[in-house]
Design a protein that fits this description.
Blueprint (H helix, E strand, L loop, with lengths): L1 H12 L8 H5 L7 H6 L2 H22 L6 H25 L9 H27 L4 H20 L8 H6 L3 H4 L9 H15 L6 H13 L11 H9 L10 H22 L6 H22 L4 H6 L5 H33 L6 H24 L3 H5 L2 H19 L5 H20 L13
Helix pairs in contact: 4-5, 5-6, 5-7, 5-11, 6-7, 7-10, 12-13, 13-14, 13-16, 14-16, 14-17, 14-19, 16-17, 17-19, 17-20
Keywords: Membrane, Transmembrane, Transmembrane helix
Length: 443
């Protein structure tokens, strides 16, 4: 009897009590407000733009006969679309008043399914037609994305681990070296059914709103809590005031990214995985630079508290202190990459000195661009555009790794690094006086 009553209560609390029917997908009403819902939310539009950009790069790679990178780009599109859908679903199950809008809950579920399936089908179709050798890696991306979606629908806080999917994308090809694509069809069908059932059982959850707001403020970057250490405390003070809005997470992330990059060399060498560790570390370091201004824009009310702290001589002093702290963050990022490159040499990676210089310059110009453009940003929409810097950095370093494997000359890459660094330094210095130029009250 208790089980029956519990099921009745749960069904009454479901966001879509009668489920989603096939006729809902055919109804024009189900797509009302779709443009406003998906493209005016900072979280979903960031992931959707990344997904579309991945398709664009895949088409460009096909045009230039570089099919080896198509699998990575299609995987990025699939994973990003899954994150966008999860973002909207977290927002839906965290809103207590969503039931007041007729059809809103059903519309969000229908639109989420349409967007997710459309991108997955398009990615698989593109792989089948133009790059059959990448089909298995794209299928792995679909499976992992669906499994992550299903897990996060059970546990809302799991969304905070979404960064692991983006870090793992370069490894999808390694996972499918000796795996035929047809072996993944049955798990795919099973996961689609699991997700379908779970979407019909969505209910309001008190943790979902906290996850949504935390993601907005911290840019979906998460690390486990650690006890404050003297080293972390000194590092946090060294990065102040750039670390003010992020908090101790910035210093903690710097240490953990460096340690993680060094430790990955052990299994990579033992199992001969040949992982692009420098690419992963570079992306994480760039993400931390982006996080400085993302959290600043999200927590803009805290600027007044920062301004009232002792140690700044007015607004000009605050601007200069923030500029110097940002420069120190870039210096520490370069040091982190240098340690990872030296560890690569110790573990037998075939890294030449020009290539190491190229990797260090990539960290330099990407950090300069991220912090310079971030200082110019006044809202989340402008900050979302900085995602392009991460994508360009990822592609730039990925193609340079392939040039290293082909034993090509690095002079062209170093010349491009030098030009980008010059532009980045100019942008970084020029943006210093434009941060809070209208005062700390106005962005």
């Amino acid at each position: 009897m208790n089980a029956i009553l519990t099921n009745l209560v749960r069904s009454a609390n479901r966001l879509t009590p009668h489920g989603v029917k096939l006729s809902d997908f055919m109804s024009r009403d189900s797509y009302r407000g779709m443009f406003r819902l998906w493209l005016f939310d900072a979280g979903s539009v960031c992931f959707l733009l990344t997904s579309l950009f991945g398709f664009g790069i895949a088409v460009l790679s096909l045009y230039n006969d570089k099919t080896s990178s198509i699998g990575l780009m299609l995987s990025m599109s699939v994973v990003s679309s899954c994150m966008s859908v999860l973002w909207q679903l977290n927002r839906l199950v965290g809103a207590e008043t969503s039931f007041l809008i007729p059809g809103y809950q059903r519309n969000v579920v229908v639109q989420s399914i349409v967007i997710l399936l459309s991108i997955m089908i398009f990615a698989l179709g593109f792989a089948v037609i133009f790059a059959p050798q990448t089909l298995a890696s794209v299928l792995i991306a679909v499976l992992i994305s669906l499994a992550f979606l299903w897990g996060c629908l059970h546990w809302n806080k799991g969304f905070q681990f979404s960064i692991l999917l983006f870090i793992g994308m370069p490894f999808f090809d390694q996972m499918t070296l000796n795996l035929p694509w047809w072996m993944l069809v049955i798990p795919l069908v099973m996961l689609l059914e699991f997700v379908r059932v779970k979407l019909g059982q969505l209910t309001w959850h008190h943790d979902a709103r906290a996850t949504y707001l935390s993601g907005m403020e911290m840019g979906w970057f998460w690390l486990p809590s650690m006890k404050q250490h003297n080293l972390l405390d000194k590092l946090n003070r060294y990065l102040h005031p750039a670390s003010f809005f992020v908090g101790p997470l910035l210093a903690m992330a710097l240490v953990m990214v460096t340690v993680l990059g060094l430790l990955i060399f052990i299994p990579s060498t033992l199992f001969e995985w040949h992982l692009p560790i420098q690419l992963i570390v570079g992306q994480l370091l760039l993400m931390m630079c982006c996080l400085v201004h993302w959290s600043r824009v999200q927590r803009w009310r805290g600027v007044e508290t920062l301004f009232m702290l002792p140690g700044f001589s007015g607004l000009v002093g605050l601007q200069q202190a923030f500029f110097k702290a940002s420069a120190r963050l870039i210096s520490l990022s370069i040091l982190s990459m240098l340690l990872v490159c030296l560890a690569g040499l110790v573990f037998g990676q075939p890294l030449s000195l020009p290539f190491i210089a190229h990797l260090l310059l990539c960290v330099l110009w990407s950090g300069l661009f991220a912090l310079g453009l971030g200082a110019l940003s006044r809202n989340i929409s402008q900050m979302s555009a900085i995602m392009l810097v991460m994508i360009i950095h990822s592609l730039f370093v990925s193609f340079s790794f392939k040039a290293l494997q082909a034993q090509q000359d690095m002079d062209g890459w170093l010349m491009a690094d030098f030009l980008l660094t010059v532009v980045g330094v100019w942008l970084f210095i020029w943006s210093k006086d434009r941060l809070w130029r209208k005062g700390v009250i106005e962005l």
